[in-house]
C-alpha cells in the first residue's frame, strides 16, 4: 500500500482495487427478480391517473455566470440555467470541424450517437483497463481541445467562470475512488438515425444522471455548451419535480425506480411510456449554438428528437457540495 491515501492511486493500485471487488449471488437469479419487479413498477405507474405535481421551479436565463443564479440552481430553487452566447460562432465552427474529423466512440442504447473522449462511467470498468484508459486520456484530451482551437476550450471557460463566480471555487474533479484527475470535455454527437426507439426518438429519452431525491446541500449538475443544433427539434425537456426520499410516497419510489431503468434493455419503451404517464408537462429549453445550459442532473430530462442535421454539445458534470469547491468531470 502507498504511504498516503491522499495521493492518486498508481496503475497497480487501480488493478488491485478492481481485483478486490467481488460479486456474490447468482446473476441469473438477480436478473429474473429485477425483471419481475420492473414489470410491477411499470404496471403501477400505468394505473395512476393523476400525474405528479411540478414544483414550480423555472429555467433561469442570464447574460453571464454570477453567484446568485448558480446558488439558486444548486439549492434547487431553479431547475436549469441558460446562458445564451456563452461561446462564439467561430469557436463552434472550429470545434465542430475537429469533432467530425476525429474517430469517435459509438455509444449503444442511449440517444447519443457517438462521443469524442471517454465518458465517466468508464471508471467503473468492466475491467481495470477501461478505468485506466479513462484516466490516461483525461489530461491529454483536454489539452488537445485547447490546442485545436488555439484558445480556451468552452469547458475551460466554464471552469474559470465558475471559479470566479462561486465563492468556494471550481476545479477539475478528483472525487473518485482513485483520487485521479478526471476528464472535462466530452463531445456528444446526436444524429437522427441514432435516436433509439419510437416515442423516444421524437419526444426524447427521459433519464437522470444523478440521484433523483432533491437535496439542497449537494447534487450533480450537467452543463452542456451547444456547438451545433439541428434546424428543427433537439430541444431540451426538463421535468421540474422534486422527489423527497422520506415522504413515504409510493409514487416517488415508483418514479425513482422507473428512472433507474430508463435505458433498460428490453423494457425501455414501456418504462418511457410509464414515465410520460406519471410526470407533468416538462419545461422546454431551446438552446442555440454557442449557448450554455446547466441543469440538475437528478431531475428527469430528455433531448427531443429531430429528423435532419446534427446536434453537437460539449458536456461536463459539476458536483456541488455545500461549502466545497465545485468539481467538474465528464
Ligand atoms: O444535450 C442536452 O441538451 C442535455 C443532454 C443530457 O442528457 C445531459 O447533459 O445530461
Order of secondary-structure elements: HHEHEHEEHHEEHEEHHEEEEE
Helix fraction bin = 25-40%
Tell me the number of strands: 13
Residue fraction in strands: 15-25%
Overall 3D geometry?
globular
Structural classification: alpha+beta
**CATH fold-level topology:** Jelly Rolls
Bound molecules: 2-oxoglutaric acid
CATH class: Mainly Beta
Largest sheet descriptor: 10 strands, mixed
Walkthrough of the structure:
This protein has helices at residues 11-20, 27-47, 67-74, 89-101, 128-149, 154-165, 199-203, 250-260, 268-278, and strands spanning 59-61, 80-83, 105-106, 114-116, 170-172, 186-190, 218-228, 236-238, 283-285, 292-296, 301-303, 311-321, 326-329. The protein has a single domain, classed as Sandwich (Jelly Rolls), CATH 2.60.120. Helix 1 packs across helix 5, helix 2 packs across helix 8 (250-260) and helix 2 (27-47) packs parallel to helix 9. By secondary structure, the chain is α+β, with helices and mostly antiparallel strands. It starts with 10 loop residues before the first helix and ends with a strand. The strands form two sheets. Strands 1, 2, 3, 4, 5, 6, 7, 10, 12 and 13 form a ten-stranded mixed β-sheet that branches. It has a three-stranded antiparallel β-sheet with strand order 9-8-11, with no helix packed on it. The protein binds 2-oxoglutaric acid (AKG).
